[in-house]
From TrEMBL:
Motif (Histidine triad motif): 98-102
Species for this entry: Lentilactobacillus diolivorans
Residues in HIT domain copies: 5-115
Transmembrane feature ranges: none
Name of the protein in its database record: Histidine triad protein
PANTHER family given in the database record: ADENOSINE 5'-MONOPHOSPHORAMIDASE HNT1, HIT FAMILY PROTEIN 1
Domain of life (superkingdom): Bacteria
Family matches, as Pfam families: HIT (PF01230)
Stretches assigned to coiled coil: none
Length: 142
């Protein structure tokens, strides 16, 4: 993709602080450094989001995440954990439309990363959940 910023990084047209690279993926520091060591792992092949992976590319890309995650964690003794985040679609905060995984090292409960899942469990009956379950099951393999 000619104008994709991450394709430009893959081609070396935009510099990046690369921490890992092979024929399938590139991992480089996120320019925002939400927390120190914040890294993006991307497939070199341009695909927009999670919905576009086939099983082969998914297994190749996902297989490389733990290695990069371990290296980041080992790089700084203050890293206590890590959030791995993958945004898909503008509504889900995706701003660069070349699939990528954020590896966000966590240092303290009050560092510069936060994620909120509301607990709506009291709004669902077992029947409601069964309907949601069935609707997803019906589309498996689409
Ligand atoms: P998204 O919001 O799509 O999940 O994440 C896109 C990320 O790409 C952002 O965290 C942003 O800081 C990062 N980013 C955008 N442009 C560049 C760039 O030119 N170089 C690097 N290293 N990161 C970038
Ligand atoms: Zn791209």
């Amino acid at each position: 993709m000619k104008d994709c910023i991450f394709c430009k990084i893959v081609r070396g047209e935009i510099p990046s602080y690369t921490v890992y690279e092979d024929d399938v993926v590139k991992a480089f520091l996120d320019i925002s450094q939400g927390t120190p060591g914040h890294t993006l792992l991307i497939p070199k092949k341009h695909i927009a989001n999670i919905f576009e992976y086939d099983e082969e590319l998914a297994s190749e890309v996902f297989a490389r995440i733990p290695k990069v995650a371990r290296a980041i964690k080992a790089s700084n003794p203050d890293i206590k954990g890590m959030n791995i985040v993958n945004n898909n679609g503008q509504i889900a905060y995706q701003s660069v439309f070349h699939s990528h995984f954020h590896l966000v090292p966590r240092y303290t409960t009050h560092d510069d990363f936060a994620m909120i899942f509301k607990d709506n469990s009291n709004k669902y009956t077992a029947d409601d959940l069964k309907k949601v379950q069935q609707s997803i099951v019906d589309h498996m393999g689409d």
